[in-house]
Amino acid sequence: MRLLGKLGFAVAACLFGANVAAADTVVKWLHIEVNPAQVKIWEEVARSYEASHPGVKVEMQFLENEAYKAKLPTILQSKDRPNIIYSWAGGVLKTQIEAGVLEDITDSVKSGGYSDTIAPAALAAFTQNGRVYGLPIALSQVGFLYNKDLMAKGHVDASKIKTWDDLLGAVKTLKAAGVTPIVVGGADKWPLHFYWTHLAVRIGGKPAFDAALKGENGGFAGETFQKSGELFKQLVDLQPFQNGFLGSKNPQAVGYFGDGKAAMILAISSFYHTQRALAADKVGLSDDKLGWFDFPVVPGGKGEPSDTLGGITGWLVTKDSPKEAVDFLKYFISKDVQARLAAGNFIVPVVKGGEAGLKSDFMKQIAANLAKSNYHQNFYDQSLGPSVGRVVNDVSAEIAGGSMSPQDAAKAIEAAYKQGN
Amino acid sequence: MAIASPINVAGEAAPQALRGPGWDGRFTVLILFLPPALLLFTLFVVLPIGEAAWYSGFNWNGFGRPTQWIGFDNYRFVLETRAFWLALRNNGLIIAVSLAIQLPLALTLALMLAEKFRGAVALRMLFFMPYILAEIATGLIFSFVYDGDYGLVASIWRFFGAEPPYLLASTDTAMLAVLIVIVWKYFGFHMMLFIAALQSLDKSLVEAARIDGATRSQTLRHVVIPLLYPTIRLSVFFAIVGSLQLFDLVMPLTRGGPADSSNTMVSFLYNNGISRMRVGYGSAIGVILFAICVTFAFTYKRWFMRDE
Prior knowledge:
Chain A: It is found in: Periplasm. Chain A is α/β, with parallel strands linked by helices.
């Protein structure tokens, strides 16, 4: 009887609770973050927002990266779409804006001088024709993370790797010493496209990319892009990667690096953090064993050595969302929260003053690199949209696997670009 | 008039339509039962296929309504893609392996296990087990088995003192590795079909053959297997249609890679149509695949399964 009473009470509580929830404004927030430590901070931020804004409920939903990308068009066109979604800016964002599924949040972002608190380049990535459709959360840089012990074992001075030939030389020396030079998650393809893309950034710089977008100089089949394939092939021919690299996924590869089994990894700056979680012992390489050098320059290349390749990630608000969604985003992307995320080494902040939270020297260095970069190229596979970007990933993997020539690779991208536009 | 219905006994006339088995009766059945079936069929079969065919004429990324009509260009793009032909070839390989290795293996095991002996049931369950396992789980398990660093295959290689291969990471071996998993996963299903057929065989025919002095292999060849033909035909049908639809084993194993070497038609559709948001292009692949399946199904039914 007592049990029944308890049950009845529980049911009543549930019903009552459900009623209260229904009366609230619910902000549905869809994310793809797999790092539990970071999600925990997000949760806490959401709860503290709820505490200071009675009547608003922030609901977090999760989808895995690839599933998210595949489902997004459908999700966005459903009536029950989430209010806040994750974005890598670039071509996908452009498509979404053109389809009219996003909310123009320009007015509320500009009000009260809020937009001035954000790094202009980062905000620009979410702006089109002067209208703002989202807010950036983090920047990242692509470069080489290395294992100091293994570099020493292979008698390579990483601080001297400045040019592409230096890198090729280091690979040869490491191989001769019996050290696996580089690890890469080739099955995911995009880690391989970093090589191809970053070489293009070094060889042609911003002018080459802009020209290719306009179809000038042979577009993506032009000289710059053929050359980046050729230089990439020089590296591939040295067999620098771990055995079976075309079958490993990125998390495996990052874990392999964290286990201390390879000297280098061409990494997004956030791998600095994820290699710990993905290593077999969940500890990974400690700070004193980790080093970083920027992507080598190509002699005669038109790109500046300070140019960077990386990501600009952020949040979008979907059409017909309650105004609380934007309000929460502004709360989320504020100096305090950014400083907190920066302190956990999760992000390079985009809000001015947020970098005060940066604790590790490594993250400070990345932030400094990004600050002095005049040309930050968003990942090609995001920047060019899914239909062309994935072809860039494909051909990078094919060059790495030896099944496609650099010339054919460049032509394939140009063909996809023409088809997609 | 002795078979008059109770209604007639009661002196009332039966309604026209219920009176007899002639045209009127069939017409009533048609009126009553056709519309729901037709409606469901239209709603769940004809419309989606028609929609896919319609979308395949557009250059469309899945947002809003398709507007850019490009006619048959998507089909041309598909047919010009090397990866499509690779995928088609792989589907052909899967069918070949299913017919040449999987079904004979299943039949042999069925002939051994259909008889009653100690442990027969346990062995049957053991062989059937892979079929029960979800495809995605099978794929994940085998991606570990094939792993060149920690996998079972690697340890076997190391045992013999050789450098282990990375089967899923090479364009030469990835498809082979997938084929092995396919055989492992589905032979149990066909074995069960054969066992069921064997157990319902008319035993007297086998006995008659024995009494006439036929040897074991003669009985098998001239009596048992011919009696199994209907089941074999069904098995072949399942094997081929299943091979054409294969997707969920490939994704966790190789995702169609490296360099598209292990794509099937469906994983090719997914990788190119869905992941790249080229819905028109994907629809074109879907329509081609549908055409192949339908052509096969009708031809096969017409030629081989006419009596059933």
